[in-house]
Design brief:
alpha+beta, Alpha-D-Glucose-1,6-Bisphosphate, Chain A, domain 4, eight-stranded antiparallel β-sheet, 8 strands, globular, disordered N terminus
């Protein structure tokens, strides 16, 4: 991962990651929701409260998933959902806020509930790193239409 990614704050029960995007709030919202497949193809949901949410991935050669639901969707400023993996006692709660920042957008993501979910103590730091990765891909997709860095000349 590039060293230029913003820092993340991970405590025992919460993760907070922020990313500045050089695109307007409407463009970032579109990428976050309708254009999501461009930057996070394994995450599926409709941007409507009550919508089921599923993330799929492969870990150590085995298919894995986390499931949940969208709990709040206030376009173009707030998306919140709960999700959990089968091993967790309770769901984690994720809130993504978009706010105008000059001509760009500040994206702030908070994930809470690690302590009550009974997750391993390393999970907040792992999720902080994962959120940094996904928000960087969201930034690129919002600014350029592609989640991958531009090829070097």
């Amino acid at each position: 991962m590039p060293a230029s990614l913003p820092p993340a704050d991970a405590t025992g029960d919460a993760v907070r990651v922020a990313q500045t995007v050089a695109a307007g709030v409407g463009s970032v919202w579109w990428s976050l929701t309708a254009g999501r497949a461009a930057w996070w193809p394994g995450l599926h949901f409709a941007p409507v409260a009550g919508s089921p949410l599923v993330e799929t991935w492969t870990e150590d050669g085995a298919p894995r998933s986390a499931t949940g639901e969208v709990v709040q969707c206030d376009a173009p400023a707030l998306l919140a959902f709960r999700w959990r993996e089968p091993e967790w006692a309770h769901a984690l709660e994720v809130t993504i806020r978009l706010a105008a920042a000059g001509t760009g957008t500040e994206v702030t993501l908070t994930e809470t509930g690690f302590a009550t979910a009974g997750t391993p103590p390393t999970l907040p730091a792992e999720h902080a790193e994962g959120w940094r990765y996904h928000l960087e891909r969201l930034r690129r997709a919002s600014e350029t239409g592609s989640p991958e860095p531009a090829p070097r000349a």
